[in-house]
Specification:
This protein is an all-alpha fold. The chain has 14 helices and 2 strands; from the N terminus they run H-H-H-H-H-H-H-H-H-H-E-E-H-H-H-H. The chain has a two-stranded antiparallel ribbon. A hairpin with a 2-residue loop joins strand 1 (262-266) and strand 2 (269-272). Helix 3 runs antiparallel to helix 4 and helix 5 (110-132) packs antiparallel against helix 6.
């Protein structure tokens, strides 16, 4: 069983394995087309549900690993999307941890905890969307967003309960003290951040602050186009259709609250200059920060210290999960995931990377 207190090497390896699982699920979720960039289906919350029995320090470490690594996978570290993701994840994680700790399992199942956590995450994101993007028009996206959160929370919670009952990996980690049989290790090259990447990283940070404090829609639009060109040059610009759809959705939602000079009237619908410019300005800022993040964050970005070791190990184990994902089939869905987690833990234990790199 995992004990409270200092995070030991074994617990760090567990965090790294669950962090890699978060990354894998985040990658799948990133590939699913979404009309708004901050909408999260919630696949990557599954490892957090599995980790609810961990001590609070270890659980929060996993949450931070998920948030940081997810922003690197999606290229949103310097954007509003990171703020939305971090706020939603922290809100749902703290709610779920408290529910698991203070409410008896007979009174609330993992499925119920998952649904409430998902709804709390969506509510936090709706509040941020009200403040930064859509204004009062957020009331129109709130119902479908909450509905999606309730459905995905139920499905994830139901699957998590089934996985807990059938998973050999979960039973060994959270119900027994013995470790797994050690398998043949797979060595991976360790990538470190070079000075050039550090300079580019901080330059990107300064540019992100600049685009946030500039209120001119014209300048914001120019910066967005510049960042889009840079991202396209590095083949990281993403799907242009999604970008255009987001621009149109933000602009249209801001027109619902008209102010300023009237440009056109279409029946009861009034298009005003102020609302239109505000919508364009907000959309340019959000998408500009996304393109900037994709451009300046290197794929091998790592942090120093034990937290950096866990993040680095998670990325290395992600490669193993991707290589072994063929074992996950509809007939052996839980068994396939279980075998991959067992292999990841065994390889991490044998490699000794977390223990030898402090």
């Amino acid at each position: 069983m995992l004990k409270h207190g200092k995070i030991h090497e074994r617990t760090k390896r567990i965090i790294a394995v669950l962090g890699a699982f978060c990354l894998f699920l985040s990658t799948i979720e990133y590939l699913v087309p979404k009309p708004l960039p901050f909408i999260r289906i919630g696949f990557a919350n599954l490892p957090l549900l599995l980790a609810l029995q961990m001590p609070f320090t270890a659980f929060i470490t996993l949450v931070i690993v998920k948030i940081f690594s997810q922003s690197i996978i999606s290229g949103t570290l310097f954007s509003y999307v990171f703020l939305f993701s971090a706020t939603g994840t922290f809100t749902s994680a703290l709610i779920m941890f408290c529910l698991r700790k203070f409410i008896h399992p007979d009174l609330m199942s993992i499925t119920g905890i998952s649904v409430l956590g998902s709804l709390c995450s969506n509510i936090a994101q709706i509040i941020l969307a009200r403040l930064f993007i859509f204004g009062a028009a957020v009331i129109y996206i709130a119902p479908p967003l909450l509905a999606i959160g309730a459905v995905t929370g139920f499905v994830l919670g139901f699957f998590c309960e089934k996985f807990m009952k059938e998973s050999i990996w979960y039973k060994n980690i959270f119900t027994k003290s013995n470790d797994f049989v050690v398998r043949t290790p797979v060595k991976h090259k360790v990538n470190f951040v070079i000075k050039k990447d550090i300079i580019v990283f901080f330059a990107g940070f300064l540019l992100s602050v600049t685009i946030l404090f500039i209120s001119s829609p014209l300048i914001r639009m120019a910066m967005f186009l510049l960042f889009w060109v840079f991202a396209a040059f590095k083949k990281k610009s993403g799907n242009p259709f999604i970008t255009i759809l987001f621009f149109l959705s933000v602009a249209l939602f801001n027109l619902i609250a008209p102010y300023g000079k009237i440009i056109a009237i279409c029946g009861p619908f009034v298009i005003t200059e102020g609302a239109l410019l505000q919508g364009i300005s907000k959309a340019a800022a959000v998408e500009g920060l996304v393109m900037l993040s994709r451009t300046v964050i290197p794929e091998n970005f790592m942090l120093p210290g034990y937290f950096g070791n866990i993040v680095g190990e998670s990325f290395r184990l992600l490669r193993i999960i991707i290589e072994e994902k063929k074992n996950i089939t509809m007939k052996n869905f839980i068994g396939g995931i279980d075998s991959i987690l067992i292999k990841c833990y065994s390889i991490s234990e044998e490699s000794g990377y977390i223990k030898s790199n402090r």
